[in-house]
Write a structure and sequence with these properties.
- By secondary structure, the protein is of the alpha/beta class.
- The chain has a single domain, classed as Rossmann fold (3-Layer(aba) Sandwich).
- 46% of the residues lie in helices and 13% in strands.
- It contains 11 helices and 9 strands.
Length: 269
């Protein structure tokens, strides 16, 4: 089984995070599952931090074009699953109506799994401006009644990069933020952004005061494996009727990419 992992970061800019992801994927994926890591095109952002852009709906929408092209490339290369590995889930609905391989998403996988572990889930994030988007995504996934809210975790992306060397302070700050979310009714905590998730998972933090802290990356991997298995053994495929699900002709998709000058990005990183 081959899974195309798609990050919202330029992975080549983030050595410690990139290495931590590789180690975690190797530990979680079952034997025979190959997870190939891909990031955004080098030079996408002004720095190694995408948050300055993705906190804006308009810029995130434009960057989502890279995810759409990556999905088409994953299908062309015969990957079994295209897996969006970022909480905002850029262009998720559009990608599912663009390619015919299973598409899983980090936030959706975490939310669905959380619903099996508690009545309500909450999300902790670096980027406060994402709170509205997370609430909208929970509603779009049909889970609004199970959503306890999203809150700032109290540290940043760059803090996490430093925390790979010594995570002690960040873990305690996470516990403090998690308790505030638990007080609002959360019975499962989702660590929002993937770098935060990998830091916590790497250090074995799986609960706070009896409330589970979900390893969102692990749920994403396991759902990807399950969707590929359902396709292979049961022939299970997505709905292909109506405006959101009917697939366009791929020749026309490629023509449109070319028309908009997106060809230089086709060789995704």
């Amino acid at each position: 089984m081959k899974i195309w992992h798609q990050s919202f970061t330029v992975l080549s800019d983030l050595g410690a995070y990139n290495d931590a992801l590789k180690a975690h994927f190797s530990r979680i994926a079952r034997p025979g599952t190959q997870i190939d890591m891909h990031g955004m095109h080098p030079g996408t952002y002004r720095s190694n931090y995408p948050g300055s852009d993705i906190r804006h709906a308009s810029l995130q929408y434009i960057h989502g074009l890279q995810f759409m092209m990556a999905a088409v490339e994953a299908q062309r290369q015969d990957y079994d699953v295209f897996a969006i590995s970022t909480l905002p889930e850029p262009a998720l609905r559009e990608i599912r109506g663009l390619v015919d391989i299973p598409v899983v998403a980090y936030g959706e996988s975490a939310m669905l799994t959380a619903c099996m572990l508690g009545r309500k889930f909450g999300v902790l994030v670096f980027i406060d401006d994402l709170n509205d988007l997370i609430e909208q995504n929970a509603h779009g996934h049909g889970l609004a009644s199970r959503f306890a809210g999203a809150m700032p975790v109290g540290f940043t992306f760059n803090d996490v990069l430093k925390g790979f060397e010594d995570p002690t302070e960040l873990i305690e700050r996470f516990r403090v933020a998690a308790r505030k979310l638990i007080a609002k009714g959360a019975e499962v905590i989702i660590p929002g952004e993937a770098p935060m998730n990998i830091l916590l998972a790497q250090n074995g933090l799986s609960e706070v005061d009896g409330v589970p802290v979900l390893d969102s990356l692990a749920t994403w991997i396991k759902q990807a494996e399950a969707m590929a298995d359902l396709r292979k053994f049961c022939g299970t495929k997505p709905c292909r009727t109506g405006y959101y699900h009917k697939l366009p002709e791929m020749d026309r998709v490629n023509e449109i990419f070319s028309f908009y000058g997106l060809d230089p990005l086709r060789q995704v990183s």
